[in-house]
Amino acid sequence: MILVQGLTKSFGRQPVLRGLDLEVPTGSITVIIGRSGGGKSVFLKHLIGLLRPDAGRVLVDGAQITGLRGRALDDVRRRYGVVFQGGALFDSMSCADNVAFPLRERLRLPRPEITKRVEAALVAVGLEGMGAKNPAEVSGGMRKRVAIARALVTEPEIVFFDEPTTGLDPVLVNTIHHLILDLHRRYRFTAVMVSHEIPEIFEIADTVAMLHEGRIVEVGPPAAIQASQNRVVRQFIRGVPENSEGA
Amino acid sequence: MTERPLPLPLRPLDALGGWTLEVVESLGRFGTFLAEALVALVSPPFKLSAFLDRIHYIGYRSLLIILLTGSFTGMVLGLQVYLTLVRFGSEAYLGPAVALSLIRELGPVLSALMVTGRAGSALTAEIGIMRITEQIDALTVMALNPMRYLVAPSILAGLVTFPLMTALFNTVGIFGGYLVGVELLGLSQGTYFGEMQTFVDMKDIMTGFWKSLSFGVIVTWVCTYKGFHVGHGAEGVARATTDAVVLSSVLILVWDYFMGSILP
Question: What is the interface pTM, i.e. ipTM, of the complex?
Fold first, then answer.
């Protein structure tokens, strides 16, 4: 379980997170929704230890990670898989090498084992036979799938998705969401996803949390969020600009 | 809670304090960055393939520009020094004059400036793009140290390639001087090379070697640091690349003076 308590972060004089609390149950898919520029990616970076909070803490299975550095933090990260917004694939390597990279460099597996696992990972994301291509030669949707394969190839316990469907057409958005759902059923990882794909995320999420002005203003199962009476949540779900409802 | 604005007379002092803190902080970051890179450099696992890739990136790709600038620098030196020496009837010293100028001063400095323009800028841009496309973050969250994969191999490659590039620059420069002095202006080949052997000793070669070695560290350190701490988007990468080339070039010249004044 991931427990976030009172997470606060400012950049200069600009507060981004203002005492954020959240609980992510083990084995669930928790989707963080909220407006662009609302601090969702900043929040995710705190969970993976790329940013340090000004106050508050993040606990992973009871162990506080916010004060960790170096090897202690790396030990926690070994349990993680991360899918970045743009894929963050190494453009000097082929798609297969990208997927093989954590197996070779982190797990130091023998070459035949790496080949076997890379092929299986590419098949799992529907990219069989595409491994030799460079990330620049494949479509945006394929890049996202390679990124998902790379994040999952080490069989992590917790997977973070930072807007994995940004910039894709509605068909690809659905394809990626169902791929994530299918992989989640197969590997049973805990997933934390940042997204603003409404209403698609309601089909895959176990829990949805609405982040607004640095705080989680509503959290619950998709049906409860969809029926929420909170004005901010209602406006966001319906795509209504601020000040146009209840004014 | 809003902060109370400072009284007008105190504002310049506030700005000066802020600027000083910023400078001290960035100097601290700059030093810590090198320390982290050196730790990654001496602690296993060593990334041999990344090191060889950086040798190719910094050294091999700069070969042509080094050959070109080295030969023309030697030719210009040969011509100008000959025209000066001939006034005093001392043209026999053309060989040592060209060789000493190149080995002690021009070779290390000009080759370092050329490699900075050719490979240093590309190094900053490459690492900068990796930063803004989250490739460096990807390495970090894989529990892999980016310093070990990107910075330490570059600094080690700088230590190896800069002295080699300098040696190459000096060699083609001396032959450039030979072309002008001996083949064009009629000085004897024996005089050109014979006097060079008399006047150039190991101490001069070592002076140039230590300079090029330190330039290797300075350029790769500055260029990787600037790439690592790039701003946002394409503009951030462009600014970091310019800053890296300018800062490296200035530091090469300042450090050259410092080394020149302490080395024999």
Answer: 0.88
